User: Which sequence fits this backbone?
């Protein structure tokens, strides 16, 4: 019984390491992409969430690739959406 529990704990630890590695690689890839600066600032805000006013997060939204760059002045113009200030 004890060996089974130890095996489960070892398997859980292995899965957690694999999950962390996958997400670290995904984060590095997205930060190297065209929205890297914006996402780096958002990740910084998430890491310091207790120090961030909720109003600061209003300008960050999920943007699909067909809406354009959320940090450019033209963002959302094709949909009649004003850029958040």
Assistant:
């Amino acid at each position: 019984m004890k060996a089974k529990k130890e095996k489960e704990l070892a398997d859980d630890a292995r899965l957690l390491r694999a999950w962390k590695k996958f997400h670290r690689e995904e984060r590095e890839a997205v930060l190297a992409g065209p929205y890297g600066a914006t996402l780096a600032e958002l990740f910084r805000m998430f890491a310091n969430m207790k120090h961030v006013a909720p109003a600061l997060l209003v300008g960050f939204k999920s943007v699909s690739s067909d809406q354009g760059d959320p940090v450019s002045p033209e963002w959302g113009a094709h949909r009649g959406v004003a850029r958040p200030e």
